[in-house]
Write a structure and sequence with these properties.
single chain, 338 residues, alpha/beta, 15 helices, 12 strands, 45% helix, binds zinc ion
Length: 338
Amino acid sequence: MSMAGRIARMTGTLIPAALARPFGAPAAVFFHGVETALTNPAIQSNQHTLDAFENIARLLKRDFDVLPLAALTDVRKQPGKHSRALFLMSDDGYANTLTVAADVLGSFALPWTLFVSTHHIDSGMLNPMTVARAFFLLAPEGRYDIPHLGALTLNDEREMLAGRVLPRLKNLDAARANQAVAAMQSVLDSAGISLAQRFPSEHFLSWDQIRQLDNRGVTIGAHADWHWPMHESQTADYLREQALRPKRRIEEEVGPCRAFAYPFGQRGDICRAAWEAVRDAGYAHAFTTIAGTLDAGSNDWLLPRYGLAPQEPNLAAMLPVMRANNARLRQWQSHIGT
Ligand SMILES: [Zn+2]
């Protein structure tokens, strides 16, 4: 998280919920997966612990009107009438959203939307960023030539190296990134490190499991095909495919798919051609991971969303903080072409 984000979070926790409520505005929040216990939080950084997630669900029930995504258009037409409205979402499509999260959310009767990256559902391949983090943190000490990233020496300063190199990896176009991640995967394979065995939390849902969630009332949306940024380094063809293919696969396997969430979803992860491809593919809405409230901006394909922290002791107090970011969100929306 950025320094501004950390300060915003710290400030947010100082404002009591009751005081914050008059500043309320409709918002969208998201998590990834939920696990009963985490063995390596640095690798499993997308997972909430079950205890923390139950606390979040309790607060959502107490402090907000959590609505199904179908209500979004009405809420955005009259945001002032829906100051407690909240849309809850989960990204990527981890198997534990069915085996753990769905039961918690079901017990509180909270509706939610699941955004899946369809290539990972089809193939079972792990999230490329999970593979990359695991390479830096778990591969044996040594010097490795990784395509497009050069020679990388893993020693006791490997965390610092990861901090420097992962942003470079994320900026690569998909073809080059794929080659780099495949090389990292083969280093782990040669060392006998099976991420799938060691970290079941990182397994993706199957289509059958996604249908079970759909039957339980979960809205299914798209999170691109391959879990990689849709930024300016990507070709127009790649961006079109990332918008079109998940919609087609979800509609073949589950049913209508009208919403999209961008992988990573920050300013540098989405370009103009990306949101235009999402719009042209026929999605009604698309979500970033830029904080803000849903009364901000007018672009239906660049909506703000707030990533739930591992613990959220006072989520209602975060709303004024999210709202304070709306001006920056609008500035960025107009910068990339709206
Ligand atoms: Zn994601």
